[in-house]
Design brief:
- The chain is α+β, with helices and mostly antiparallel strands.
- The protein has a single domain, classed as Thiol Ester Dehydrase, Chain A (Roll).
- 21% of the residues lie in helices and 41% in strands.
Length: 155
C-alpha cells in the first residue's frame, strides 16, 4: 500500500495540520498547512505589510518561518512518534515580496532515522520563486501524542 493510500498516514497528516494550526506563533499569521502525501507539505501564507522592513518588502524572518515550517512538516510526515527539531537551516533569498499570497512547498530529501534533510521553496502569486532553503531536522524527546493540537483521532 502506498503511503498516500494508508489511512493511518492520512490521520498522521491531518494531525500534523492540526498541530500547525494550534501553535501560538501561527495565530499571528494568515496561513494554512496542507499535507497531501508523504514527504511533502505546502503552506499558503498571506503577506501582511506589518512584516515589512524599511524598504517595503517582507523581512527575512518571514521567509525563514515559511521555509522552515514547510521543510519541517515535509520531514515530520515520515516520523509518526516524535516532534522534530530544526538543527540547521540555510536560506537563499531570490526576490523581495511586497504582498499577496505566497506558497511554501517543502520536500523531504533524505534520512529517516537520526537526521532528516528537507528543502523548501517560496513561490509568489505570479509563480516566481522568491526564496529557497534546506534544513536538517532531528527527533526530539517530545512525543507527538503529548502535544496539544496533535490528534490523529479528530475528524
Amino acid at each position: 500500500m502506498e503511503p498516500q493510500d494508508d489511512p493511518s498516514a492520512r490521520l498522521h497528516w491531518r494531525a500534523l495540520e492540526g498541530l500547525y494550526a494550534s501553535a501560538p506563533i501561527n495565530g499571528q499569521f494568515s496561513s494554512r498547512l496542507e499535507i497531501e502525501r508523504e514527504g511533502f507539505a505546502r503552506i499558503l501564507f498571506d503577506i501582511d505589510p506589518k512584516w515589512f522592513h524599511a524598504a517595503g518588502a517582507a523581512h527575512g524572518t518571514i521567509y525563514f518561518k515559511m521555509l522552515d515550517d514547510a521543510a519541517f512538516y515535509a520531514a515530520n510526515t515520515l516520523v509518526t512518534d516524535r516532534f522534530l527539531l530544526t538543527t540547521s537551516f540555510n536560506l537563499l533569498f531570490s526576490r523581495p515580496v511586497r504582498g499577496g499570497r505566497v506558497t511554501a512547498e517543502g520536500r523531504w530529501i533524505s534520512g529517516r532515522r537520526r537526521v532528516l534533510v528537507a528543502e523548501a521553496r517560496l513561490i509568489d502569486e505570479e509563480g516566481e520563486e522568491i526564496g529557497r532553503g534546506t534544513g536538517t531536522f532531528m527527533r526530539s524527546q517530545f512525543a507527538l501524542s503529548s502535544l496539544p493540537g496533535y490528534s490523529p483521532d479528530h475528524s
